From TrEMBL:
Source organism of the structure: Allacma fusca
Protein name: Trafficking protein particle complex subunit 6B
GO biological process: endoplasmic reticulum to Golgi vesicle-mediated transport
CC terms in the record's Gene Ontology section: cis-Golgi network; trans-Golgi network; TRAPP complex
UniProt cross-references to InterPro entries, sorted A to Z: TRAPP_component, TRAPPC6/Trs33
Coiled-coil zones: none
Domain of life where this protein originates: Eukaryota
Length: 166
């Protein structure tokens, strides 16, 4: 299926980056005395809402995907390109509901240095994107858990585990 979502224009790219940075910073400042997990959960929920709505915009007149793998490939190619102007660098799967998406130069991490302190703050910059991916998949009928991992800046991996109903 050839889906051609319209990527954000260059004029929208900088505001998205600035909005993301401000969102993370404001949540960090507002929750100085709160648990880090509460902060990450809040950022992830905002991302979930965004991803859910973004899929509606990108696929408003397109048919749904035939299977789970095709949907994940759409996330890696078209969805990622619409947001970050590039595709995911690597997709791996065990064909049992687990997918690993690797971005070798993740936009929101490429602007911060690779110090140990910033590596510790990496999850704050990834929670929103984890939520966006989870929200997009939810709108496409796939329940999932999305977890991000940073080992070296600015490379990150998004681990998607599909939750199957029993």
């Amino acid at each position: 299926m050839a889906v051609q979502p319209q990527p954000f224009s260059g004029a929208e790219e900088l505001p998205l980056e600035l909005l993301h940075g401000e969102l993370v910073c404001s949540e960090v400042l507002l929750s100085k005395d709160k648990d880090i997990n509460e902060l990450l959960s809040k950022l992830e929920f905002i991302g979930f809402s965004t991803g859910y709505r973004l899929i509606e915009r990108l696929l408003k007149e397109s048919p749904r995907f035939k299977d789970e793998l095709e949907t994940i490939k759409f996330i890696c190619k078209d969805f990622w390109t619409a947001i970050y102007k590039k595709q995911i660098d690597n997709l791996r799967t065990n064909h049992q509901g687990t997918y690993v998406l690797q971005d070798n130069s993740f936009k929101f991490l490429s602007r911060i240095s690779a110090t140990k302190q910033n590596l510790e703050h990496g999850p704050k910059f990834l929670a929103y994107t984890c939520g966006m991916v989870r929200g997009a998949l939810a709108n496409l009928g796939i329940a999932s858990v999305v977890i991000a991992e940073v080992t070296t800046m600015p490379t990150c991996r998004f681990h998607i585990t599909i939750t199957r109903s029993v």
